[in-house]
Specification:
Helices cover 30% and strands 23% of the residues. It is α+β, with helices and mostly antiparallel strands and 124 residues long. It has one domain: 3-Layer(aba) Sandwich (Aminopeptidase). Strands 1-2-3-4-5 form a 5-stranded antiparallel β-sheet. It starts with 6 loop residues before the first strand and ends in a 7-residue tail after the last strand.
Length: 124
């Protein structure tokens, strides 16, 4: 399980691990992955409920961390308290390197950086 106390901060944001047992994290992944803009660019993910998000975080997200030592991170806006637990989840940032193929090649030989931010926060 990822360390729930780990975070990186900027003046405006926290980057932390996605924690499946945190309802705010599951709700963000649900909202993000089923938003019209996400579906239009990435397609349907099957993450349509917080229960789906819980399984996704415990499965794919945590598997990336275990395999690579890095993977998916939660992006949250700081609030006046400047505490991680009070931050507002707004997106996900990914560092992903591909799996080996059957032929022994790797799809991405260096980490690929990706992000998805809820529509109301895009462009800020």
């Amino acid at each position: 399980m990822p360390d729930p106390n780990f975070y990186i901060e900027s003046p405006r944001l926290f980057l932390s691990y996605l924690i499946a047992d945190n309802p705010k994290h599951c709700q963000l992944i649900t909202d993000l992955y089923s938003s019209p803009s996400f579906v239009a660019t990435e397609g349907r993910t099957g993450v349509d409920t917080p229960a789906d998000a819980y399984k996704f975080i415990n499965g794919r997200s945590n598997a990336l961390l275990a395999r690579l030592g890095y993977g998916m991170y939660l992006c949250s806006l700081k609030t006046e308290s400047n505490k991680l637990e009070d931050a507002i989840p707004v997106g996900a940032i990914t560092l992903i390197r591909g799996d080996e193929t059957k032929e022994g090649e790797v799809a991405y030989t260096v980490p690929d950086v990706g992000f998805a931010i809820v529509d109301r926060e895009m462009g800020k």
